[in-house]
What we know:
There is one protein chain. The chain has helices at 5-29, 48-81, 97-126, 255-269, 276-284, and strands spanning 133-140, 143-147, 155-158, 181-184, 189-195, 200-204, 209-213, 219-223, 229-234, 247-253. By secondary structure, it is α+β, with helices and mostly antiparallel strands. A 5-stranded mixed β-sheet has the order 3-2-1-5-8, with helices on one face. Strands 4-10-9 form a 3-stranded mixed β-sheet. Helix 2 runs antiparallel to helix 3. It starts with a helix and ends with a helix. The structure holds copper (II) ion. Copper (II) ion binds next to loops.
Amino acid sequence: MKLSKGRMGRWLLGLAIVFGAVAMSQVAFAELGQPAPWEYKLQESGSPVMDHIEWFHNWLLVIITVITLFVLGLLITVMVKFNAKANPVPSRTTHNTLIEVAWTLIPVMILVGIAIPSFRLLFQELDIPKADLTVKATGKQWYWSYAYPDNGKFEYDSLLACDENRTKCQPPRLLSVDNELVVPVNKVVRVETTGADVIHSFAVPAFGIKIDAIPGRLNETWFQATKTGMYYGQCSELCGKDHAYMPIAVRVVTDQEFATWIEAAKKKYASSRTDSFASAAGAAQ
Ligand SMILES: [Cu+2]
């Protein structure tokens, strides 16, 4: 079977149109900070770290695509040109210095081309810049508690916004909560996580963060939200029967709105400050 150049071109154009249409529909349906139906790619980025993750993901995609097509090409060449029928007398070549040097050096260069941006990304994720705000997220069975240690001693619980049977839920379903985590836009937010009972994991895809919340240990990560709005995530460590029902909702607001909110929150949650065990017991009732 041979494809003429014209047919091949038309075929590729058709493929490009289909992919383009699918990509466009993704843009049309996708809402910043939450998953979209039929989503096949990463959530739209809402932080510099996620921008970097997205870039790295695309860079790797290019590399693996080129390698896969190259290997496929080699395999097809071998099958077509060097099968027993087409090539009854095999060559006895055993050495080719140039090729041997090339197939050693090229993979090394590819790995270096992956390692450099990979380490740069790791440092960006782990080397926390000077924080403008610290929030503490405590994973509990099965909800999150948030505290703002820079802003007084209050802590509040953030529970799934559904009725008891989880049939009626506030949209987006299974992602909405009653009390959101509120942070200011364009500020470096340090997130400290810990677990009160078992290991949970604090993850918000649009910010490119995912960090375990482990009992008896304080982990930290950071994000800087670049746009105001709602950002959703979920507990990402299997933590028991209601693991699926302890979402994370982050409301990113302007500095002014944040200042107003934090004053109101201090009053609202002042009396509800409890230690982890007391609030866990309270939720169980
Ligand atoms: Cu959990």
